[in-house]
Design brief:
The complex is a heterodimer of chains A (310) and B (291). By secondary structure, chain A is mainly α. Chain A has eleven helices and two strands, in the order ααααββααααααα. Chain A has a single domain, classed as ABC transporter involved in vitamin B12 uptake, BtuC (Orthogonal Bundle), CATH 1.10.3470. The chains are: A mainly alpha (310), B mainly alpha (291). Chains A and B meet through helix 3, helix 4, helix 9 and helix 11 of A and helix 4, helix 9 and helix 11 of B.
Amino acid sequence: MADLTQLLLNGLSIGAVYALFALGYTLVFSVLGVINFAHGAVFTLGAYFTYLLIGGAVGANGLLAGLQLPLALPFWLALPLAGLAAAAVALVIERIAFRPLRDQGADPLLALITSLGAGVVLVNLIQLLVGAESYAIPTTALAGLPPAIRLLGAQVRTVQLLLLLVAAALLAVLSLWIDGSRSGKALRAVAEDPTTAQLLGIPSGRMIQIAFGLSGFLAGIAGGLVGLSVSIAGPYFGIGYGLKGLGVLVLGGLGSVPGAVLGGLIIGIAEACVPAELSGYRDVVAYGFLFVVLLVRPQGLLGRVLPTKV
Amino acid sequence: MVDATLLTQMVIGALLGLSVYLPLRCGQLSLATPGFYAIGGTLAALLSTRVNALGGSEPSYPISSLLLEMALAGALCGVLASGIGAVVLRLRGVYLAIATIALVEILRVTMLNQEALGGAVGIFGIPQPFDDPADYALFTLGLLAVICWLCDRLERNRLGRAMAAIRDDELAAACQGIDTERSKLVAFVLSAVVAGLTGVISAHFLNSWNARLGNFDASITTLAFVVFGGSRTWAGPVLGGLVLTALPELLRPIGDLRLIVFGLVILVGPLLLPQGLINPALIGLVTQRRR
């Protein structure tokens, strides 16, 4: 029983991160129909912002060597601030890499390339500024909380529990907002058809910005949480999560919010079930799922089938 | 400024660009090129280092063995691609792109974990068919010329025009009696063969091979070649591959900033030239002059 609880919690906490990641993709995909490949870089930035805000010092290899912000915020304050900063970056990416293409009426697939370019710039900018070394967000940032607690006979790291709770709270708030509020409805209308939404008086451009801002915020929070739970393995560490997020996205159904959550949890638990001697293949789980789902049920678990139109 | 080694790298870039271009010619965004490139490279690395009959222990690796490896890699990639293509080409647009990304990642992780396929360390000491980098450059240029010629033939014949029709409107093309499934599959298989052949040369040229050479980054760089150069005709990806491979090397003097500049080029390129460098307007201009 204890082993099972442990396994489930491990799976759920990593799955929650994937879900946050996939939600960011889904928000942008639902309004624009394209994948934002700079999303992984925004996630990475969120982790670095969190590290800096809690008063972490930059190592010796970047242009900012030795920099330390003159503040040491507690983690619970640093995390949302880092999320906001990441949201600001996502808005800049929208302005530079997405909006000009939309204004020109260019092929939406081009946004794949431009967002990728934005991602390459961001990742290398991080490397230039703070170097390629890994950083760890010390768990002492969680002042007052014990490092681990016992739950149903299993030893659970507080960080994992925190990850799970924060992710669950964010997902709940987001679903409530999308389903219940006026602006959430406007977002869904834009996702359905931007032109018609515009004709009905919904500011499509503004809703797209909101989608980008939210997706950046979620990515930033996810980055900070992973930085605390694992560590920041260098400027490239978001790319692997970004690719797995794609798997989660497809598994749940492109553009579906509950699908992204379900997909994240399924892949997280499936990865946790991979035995230690096969751990090298753990990364294949998400892609294997993705491949099979695309072929068997291309609309994803909770996606909708759209008819082909002439 | 451009020496034989860099020239070879540039030509390899152009070949990979052509491999991404072929499916795009019928409107299919496949990012599987690095996967087949890795299959070709791994096959060449294994054959030339493990099979003594090919002449790996001789002072200079026989060209005939190199050609044999290329034939085998081409055949293997072609067969694999016709099987995989029959399944994945049912997907469209961004779904196809994601499925092929997954394919590349599955291949990469498998190669990384299978010691027999090189594992995490890779395969070293791949024998050299050419002593002089200039010979590598000549050989790859020869291959590029042949493939460009074939692409040019393709673009002018019935199949190539069918592909262009599918790119412009798949439904309309199907209504005119074009076998869209078959045309897309042929493009996918050709793309895989070109990538496999390039992998073979690349493995010998690089002297060592590891699974990281066929990763997601490679999908993106090769796609950037096509977007930057343009996807209307074969000259686009060739130009894109040559220029974008050379760019990071030529930017080496600015050191750490070079990858940032590279990213900016990918970011700004499509904004300024949505159709790529070799775009319809330019093609129209050139053909008009000729008349």
